[in-house]
Design goal:
The protein is an alpha+beta fold and 335 residues long. The longest helix has 118 residues. The N and C termini lie far apart (179 Å). The strands form 3 sheets. It has a 4-stranded antiparallel sheet, covered by helices on one side. Strands 6-7-9 form a 3-stranded antiparallel sheet. Among the domains are: 162 residues, Band 7 domain (Tetrahydropterin Synthase, Chain A); 35 residues, no CATH class. It is 59% helix and 20% strand. It is a single-pass membrane protein. This is Band 7 domain-containing protein. Keywords: Coiled coil. Its main location: membrane. It is found in: Membrane.
């Protein structure tokens, strides 16, 4: 009505409204009314797009192979994409040109160039084994492609799912693999025989080494026994020498002790003889009665009585018989 139109964008679409060549509205998933006279409406999809691919390539050794995989991209910079491509839509939201449809073609072409460059550096066998490495290298190289960054494209994922050689190459590889397997089987048989011979030789060498080691050990034990016996004899001889030395020392000390005792005994004997000699000289000037009295002065009473009885039996005063009363005998026996 009167050229007024309502536009409703989904959340994954970036909308830009130009009025007379000037940007008046922009945003993701916005809704608005606008007058279509002199207005241009751009709708830029922001959702991710997954594109499968299959490229026929030649390897470094000129062999045909097919690389299959998938690339996922999105428009990360809608303002850049709007400046490079035409995303103008009509009142019904239909694109007025095929630029948006060509984005997939550009992405696939950029991926194809990178895959071709990588595969041309590898032989057929290397290429068949390079799926993982190829995925990583292409993933790292895609963000640097000007053909994509210039239109605001960002590649979020790249993967190689299969690398397939041609049927002729497959047969050749299978034949080569069979030959290699047969060769490996022959090598395995040869290796087993060689290993058996080497093991037998090692067993014999080990037996000889063991015998030599046992002999060497026995010789060492015999030598150790001789050394131990020799050391025991040396110790025994040392002990005997110590005993002899100790006995000699004891005998010498005993001889010195005997000499000392003899010397001391001689000295005491000389002293006693000198004392007796002096005593006798002193007694020579004393008469016999005084000596007798002096000798009796230190006697006990019973000794004095016995001396008196003995005197009655000698000399002129000698008596024939002597009677003792019981009281005297009892008194004498008490002492």
């Amino acid at each position: 009505m009167f050229g007024i139109t309502f536009f409703k964008a989904d959340p994954s679409t970036y909308v830009m409204l130009y009025k007379n060549g000037k940007l008046t509205k922009q945003g993701t998933g916005i809704n608005f009314y606008y007058h279509d006279l002199g207005a241009s409406l751009l709708a830029i999809p922001l959702n991710s797009q997954a594109i499968p691919f299959a490229f026929a390539m030649k390897s470094k050794d000129y062999q045909n192979l097919t690389v299959q995989g998938q690339v996922t991209y999105r428009i990360a910079h809608p303002d850049v994409a709007a400046n490079m491509l035409n995303f103008t839509v009509d009142k019904k939201g239909q694109y007025l040109c095929d630029d948006p449809e060509k984005i997939q073609e550009r992405v696939v072409r950029a991926v194809q160039v990178l895959v071709r460059n990588e595969m041309e550096e590898r032989t057929l066998v290397e290429g068949l084994r390079s799926a993982k490495v190829l995925s990583r290298e292409i993933q790292e190289s895609l963000p640097l492609q000007v053909s994509l960054t210039s239109i605001g494209i960002e590649v979020s994922e790249f993967s190689v799912t299969n690398i397939q050689p041609s049927p002729e190459a497959t047969k050749a590889l299978e034949a080569e693999a069979r030959e290699e397997m047969l060769k490996q089987a022959d090598n395995a048989i040869y290796s087993r025989r060689l290993a058996s011979i080497q093991q037998e030789q090692q067993v014999k060498e080990r037996e000889l080494d063991t015998e030599q080691a046992v002999n060497a050990k026995q010789q060492m034990l015999e030598k150790q026994k001789l050394e131990a016996k020799r050391e025991q004899q040396r110790q025994q001889f040392s002990i005997e020498q110590e005993k002899i030395a100790a006995q000699t020392q004891n005998e010498q000390e005993r001889a010195q002790l005997v000499d000392l005792e003899n010397s001391n005994n001689n000295a005491r004997a000389d002293a006693n003889a000198y004392s007796i000699e002096r005593t006798l000289k002193a007694y020579e000037v004393i008469d016999s009665e005084r000596l007798k009295i002096m000798s009796q002065s230190g006697l006990a009473p019973e000794q004095l009585i016995a001396q008196a009885i003995e005197n009655l039996t000698r000399g002129d005063n000698k008596v024939g018989s002597l009677n003792f009363s019981p009281e005297l005998l009892q008194m004498l026996t008490k002492h």
